[in-house]
Amino acid sequence: MTGVDPITLEVVCEGLIAIVREMRATVIRASYSPVIWDMDDFSCALFDPQGQMIAQSEDHPGHVLPMPWSVRCAMEDFEGDLRPGDVILLNDAYRGGTHLNDVTMLYPLFDAGELFIFPAVRAHWSDVGGSAPGSYSGLNTNIYQEGVRIPPIKIVEEGRLNRAAMALLLNNMRLPEDRQGDFNASLGACRVAEGRIRMLLAKYGRKTALDCITLNLDRSERRLRARIATLPAGEYVYEDYLEFYQEGRFDPVLMRLTLIVEGDEIVADFTGSNPQVPGVVNSTLATTGAGVLVAVKAVLDPEGPINQGTFRPIRLRAPEASIVDVKLDAPAGAHGEVRKRAVSVMLGALAQVVPDLVSGDLCGTSFPNAIGGRDERRQRDFVYYEAPAGGNGAFREDDGSSAWGNIDFGNVRTIQSAEALESGMPFLVERSELRCDSGGEGTTRGGLGLRRELRLLEGEARYSVLSDRAVLPPFGVGGAGPAAPVKVSLRRDGEEIEFPTPGKVTGHLIAAGDVVVMQSAGGGGYGDPLARDPERVRRDVMAGYVSPARGREGYGVVLTPTGDVDAAATRAERSRLAAARRRFPVTADERDPYEGRRGKHRVLRLAPALAAGLGLATGDLVELLGRHPAPLRAWLRIEAGAPEGQVPLDGLGRRILGVSPGDTIEVRRLAMPPIPGGLVSR
C-alpha cells in the first residue's frame, strides 16, 4: 500500500466518482418515471466485497447512506453463491431498505474469479403496489399495505433474466411498463459502470485500485475523527416527536436521543424512543443512522468526502422493534420522516455542543404527495408523485434557504417542473410560489416553504399524502420562533376542505375541477427575533416573505405607510414584546411526565392561576426555553396541586433545557391545527 503515490491515489478515487456520475446520467436518460428523470429521486454508488461504500456522487443521502446495510444483507443471503452475470434486486425495508418504492439493484463484478466491486442503483419506482396509487399512505397500519416487499433475489442469474420473478413483481405494481423501464435504466447504468471499471483495472491493476480504495477510506475516517476530537466530551440529550393517529385521535410518538461524545467517536443512543406502532412513523436503523450521519457531516465536516470511512467514528444504539429500528410487520413507509426527525434530534443535541455551527430545525418532512387515476385523453393510467420543497433552518450567519432541498435530500429536485407534469398527466399547475410567513422568526430567518396548487382536469383520482410536521412545527434555536407547519387541503367549488388527520391521507377521492393545495413547512429561525436588523425585516415585507402583521408581531418592526422603518415605533414595540415574555422558576418534579396510548408525549402540569395568566388551556401545545439553544415541547395539563408560579420539570426535561431548580425558563404557546379526534391523554 505504501507504493501508491498521491497522484495515482487521487486519479483512481476521482475516477470511481466519475463512474458513479456516468451511472447517474444513464439513469436519467433511460428511466421512465418522472420522479427519477425529472426529480432525480435515485442514487448510485460503488461498494467493495465487504459492503463498504467506496464512491458516490451528487446522490440522495437517504438512499446511499443506508445502502451498505442492503449490500451486507445480500452478501449474507448469497454467501459463496454469487457468479459473474448475477444481478440482485431488493427493496425490503427490514433488510437495509428505506421505503418499498426505493428499489435497489446490486451488480457484482468479478476480476480474475474474485468479487471486486458492486455497482448499485437505488431508484424510487413511482408505484410498487399497495393500498393506494403511488404506494403512499398516511394511514397504513402494516407493511403489507405498502406494496410488494422484495427480499434480496437474483433477478438475473449468470446473465439470464428470471422472467417468472420479474412477471410476479410487475403484475403486482401499477404501470408495469414504466416499472420495466425503470428496471432497465438501473441495469443499463450498472453495465456502464462495468465497462468503466474494466478500463480502470486494465490501466492500474486490481492491487493498486484496492490499495487506493483502502487509503481513501482511511483518510476520510481520520478527517472526521479529528473534528469529533475537538468537541467537549459528555452526554447531550434531546427529544422530539413524530405524528401518529390512532383511530383518528392524535397520539404522538417520542424520539429520544442521547448523543455521547467519547474522544474521537460519537455514539447516537436512541434508548427511550417509542416502541414501533401500527402507523407510518417507523423506519429501519439504517435510515435512522443516515439521519445521524447527515447531521454530523453537515455540522462538523460539510466539505469532506462521504464514504464508508466517514461512517466509522459513529456508532448507533437503538431498541429493537422501536420507531427507529422497525421489525415485521409494522409499516416502514415513513423512512423520510423518521430520517428527518433523527436530523432534528441531532441538531437539538449538537446545539448544546456547538451552538454556533447548527441551524434551526429543517422543514422536518419529505412531504410526499401521490395522486393516481386514469387519464382518458391519453388512454393510460397515471401516478403523480411530488415532494414540494420546504425551508431550511436559519444559521448564525444568514437566513435559511427557501423551497430548497434539505441537507438529507442531496441533489433531489423538490420542485417538479410544471411543463413536465402538465404534458404527461391531466393536471394544471395553478400556483407554485413561496409561502409567506412560513419561515421561523429569528435574528436570522428560517427559509420559506412552498405553496403548490394542482387542479385535476378530468376524471377521478385518489390523493394520498404521508407527511410529518403538520401538527408540531419545526423548531427554532437560541430563542427563535418555529416555522409554519405543513398544511394540505382540497379546494372544491371555492370551499377549502381540510383533512381530519393533518398531514396523513390515504386514497381520498378527488374529481375533475378539484384543486389539491400543498403547503410545505418552513425552517426554524436562529436567535432572538427582536435582534433582527429592522432593515432586513423591511426588505422581507417588501418581497412578500413576511406579512406586515408578522413583521410587527413577530419582529417588533413597525413600517410607515410608505414602507420605511419607523425607528421610534419599532423601539417601543420591541420593548413591549420583550416585556410580555413570561419567565418562571423551575421546580423539580420526578413523576413520569409522559402519557399516550401507543404513543408517548410529554405533559407539563401547571397550576390553574399560572395557566390562566398565560392564556393556556388543557391540551395546548407549549414550548419551554431554557439555557440550551433548542426548546422543549409538551402538552399542557392544568392540575390543582401543581406549585403556584413555578414550572415543574423532571430531571430529563431539565437536562434538555440546561437548567436547575430555581433557574427561570420562558413558557410560550404554539398553535396547533384542529384535530377532530383530539389528543390521546392516557
Tell me what the structure shows:
Strands 1, 2, 3, 4, 5, 6, 7 and 8 form an eight-stranded antiparallel beta sheet that branches. A seven-stranded mixed beta sheet has the order 25-26-28-27-30-24-29. A five-stranded antiparallel beta sheet has the order 17-18-23-20-21, with helices on one face. The protein is 28% helix and 24% strand. The termini are far apart. The mean pLDDT is 95. It has 682 residues and is of the alpha+beta class. Helix 1 (6-30) runs antiparallel to helix 6. The chain folds into four domains: 6-220, no CATH class; 370-398 and 407-532, no CATH class; 534-580, no CATH class; 583-670, Beta Barrel (Barwin-like endoglucanases). Strand 25 and strand 26 form a beta hairpin. The chain is built from 16 helices and 30 strands.
Distance between the termini: 61 Å
Number of domains: 4
What count of helical segments does DSSP give?
Answer: 16
| Structural class assignment | alpha+beta
Beta-strand level of the residues, as a percent range?
A: 15-25%
Low-confidence stretches: none
Radius of gyration, in angstroms, nearest whole number:
25 Å
Rounded average pLDDT: 95
Major sheet characteristics: 8 strands, antiparallel
Number of strands: 30
